[in-house]
Amino acid sequence: MVVLYWDVLLNQNWDYPQKIMAETGEIKGHYLNATAGTCEEMIKRAVFARELGVPIVMHDYLTGGFTANTTLAHYCRDNGLLLHIHRAMHAVIDRQKNHGMHFRVLAKALRMSGGDHIHSGIQ
């Protein structure tokens, strides 16, 4: 079985957005997903992203947790990175008719935990 590691995959694909920008003259971006099983690994990924010159780091705040989100938010703020929040798993919480909470509540909790902006999608 071949195991592909996060940093290897990113290194293999990082030139692609640069190539497309050069060809089209348009600005392209990549939200590097720093979500990981531990805060230590998440910060390693954010450090790696910063070293590559990535301006935006992404975090799945519901799967990663609010404490992890705040930890990453502090690192990003201290190091000039923008923290984009992805909403993976939100439908389990906010699309149930008989239980759960409204997405606006989740979005406000995200802001309190340090996210800069959120992928809200279409509902």
TrEMBL record:
GO terms for biological process: photosynthesis. The keyword Phosphoprotein does not apply. InterPro entries: RuBisCO, RuBisCO_lsu_C, RuBisCO_lsu_C_sf. Keywords: Photosynthesis. PANTHER family: RIBULOSE BISPHOSPHATE CARBOXYLASE, RIBULOSE BISPHOSPHATE CARBOXYLASE LARGE CHAIN. Residues 17-121 form the Ribulose bisphosphate carboxylase large subunit C-terminal domain. One of its GO terms (molecular function) is magnesium ion binding. It comes from the Eukaryota. The keyword Transport does not apply. The lineage of its organism: Eukaryota, Viridiplantae, Streptophyta, Embryophyta, Tracheophyta. This is Ribulose bisphosphate carboxylase large subunit C-terminal domain-containing protein.
